[in-house]
Amino acid sequence: MPEHYRWHVPVLADQAVEALVWRNDGTYVDATVGDGGHAEKICERLAGGGRLLAIDRDPEALERAADRLNQYKDRVIFVRASFARLDELVENAKLGPISGMLFDLGVSSRQLDQPERGFSYRSEGPIDMRMGPDTETAAATIVNEWPEPELARLFRVFGEEPHAKSIARSIFQRRSRRPLATTSDLVEAIGRRGTHPEKTLSRVFQALRIAVNDELASLNRVLGLVPDLLERGGRLVVISYHSLEDRSVKAWMRMETQGCICPPTVPECRCGHVPRMRAITRRAVMPTAEEIAGNSRSRSARMRVAERL
Ligand SMILES: C[S@@+](CC[C@H](N)C(=O)[O-])C[C@H]1O[C@@H](n2cnc3c(N)ncnc32)[C@H](O)[C@@H]1O
C-alpha cells in the first residue's frame, strides 16, 4: 500500500474520548474529524438520540471519515468548513447546546504524507500547505512575495526559529534569481542551520503552515465561542502539537476558570468576571512512552480538558 494511503493514527484516543463523552445521548462536535479515528470511538459510545457534527476543512478527509463512519451515518452530520465559524455551523445544522467538543489540531499524518500538498520538507512537491479550498493563499505566495522583514517575523513568531532573520535573507536572495516553486527549492534556500538542521526545517514549515491556514487566529476565535455553545456539564477537549497552540488553550482556560480579573491594585472588584468553565486537567495530559513508540507523531501532543459550569 502506498505510504499516503495509511490511516492517521488517532492520538490520545482513549483518554480524549473518555473525557469528552459523559452522556451517550448527547450532541458532540469533532471539529477536526480528519480520518475519523476519534470520531469512530465517539460514535461507538453514542446511543439514544446521540449525534455527532463532524467538521473538517479538507474535502478528502471528510470523504474518508464518511467512509469509515458509514455504519453510524444516521447519527453523523458532515460539514466541510473551518471550525472558526463553529457558532454558524452549529446553528445551520440546527443543533442545540453541545455536550462536548473535540479539537485535535494541526495536520493529519495523511496530509503530511501527500507530497502534492507541500506540508513536508521530506518530500518534493509544490509549496502549497493549504488544508482546504476555503484558503486562498498558498505558502508559495508567502515565500515569493512577502517582504523580507515580514518573513523573518513569521519564522520568529510562528516558528520560534532562532535563525529567522538569516533564513528570510537567504529566501529573499534565492527568489530574486528565480521564484521558489517546490519544497526542495525551499529546503535548499533554508539551508543547513545550527546543530539540528531538521528542526529548523520543521519550524520554518510549521510557521508557513500556521500562516497559510490562519491556525492560531482560528483557534483563538473558536475558544471564544466555546462557553456559549456548551451545555452545562459539557466538555471541551483540545489536543495541541506545538507550544503556541497549547499556550493559547492554557491562557483561555486560566481566563475562563477564574473569577475576578481586576488588577491586584484595585481594592474592590469592578470587573464582575465570573468563571464559566472548570479545569478537568490541571496539567496537560501527554502520551505514554508506549504510545510514542507506536506513533512518533504523538510525541509533542498535549491534551487539556475543561467543563462548562
Ligand atoms: C490531527 S488531524 C485530526 C485527526 C483525527 N482526529 C483522526 O482521528 O483521524 C487534524 C485535522 O483537522 C483539520 N483542520 C485543521 N484546522 C482546521 C480548521 N480550522 N477547521 C476545520 N478543520 C481543520 C485538518 O484538515 C486535519 O484533517
Description:
The protein has a 7-stranded mixed β-sheet, sandwiched between helices. It has helices at 13-20, 37-45, 59-68, 86-92, 109-113, 139-145, 148-157, 164-177, 183-190, 197-212, 215-229, 243-257, 289-294, and strands spanning 27-30, 51-56, 76-80, 98-104, 230-240, 277-279, 302-308. It folds into 2 domains: 3-110 and 215-308, Vaccinia Virus protein VP39 (Rossmann fold); 136-212, Putative methyltransferase TM0872, insert domain (DNA polymerase, domain 1). The chain has 13 helices and 7 strands. The chain is of the alpha/beta class. 42% of the residues lie in helices and 14% in strands. The site of S-adenosylmethionine has 22 residues, from helix 2 and strand 2.
Question: Roughly what percent helix?
Answer: 40-55%
For the record, what is the CATH homologous superfamily label of the largest domain? Answer: Vaccinia Virus protein VP39
Average predicted local confidence, pLDDT: 95
CATH architecture of the largest domain: 3-Layer(aba) Sandwich
Cofactors, ions, other ligands: S-adenosylmethionine
Helix/strand/pairing category: alpha/beta
Radius of gyration, in angstroms, nearest whole number: 21 Å
> What's the total helix number?
13
What separation lies between the terminal Cα atoms? 47 Å
- How would a textbook summarize the main sheet? 7 strands, mixed
Give the neighbour order of strands across the main sheet: 3-2-1-4-5-7-6
- What order do the SSEs take from the amino end to the carboxyl end, as H and E? HEHEHEHEHHHHHHHEHEHE
Low-confidence stretches: 1-5
**How many independent structural domains?**
2
**Into which percentage range does the β-strand content fall?**
5-15%
Assign the CATH topology of the largest domain. Rossmann fold
**CATH class label of the largest domain:** Alpha Beta
Shape: globular
Strand tally, please? 7
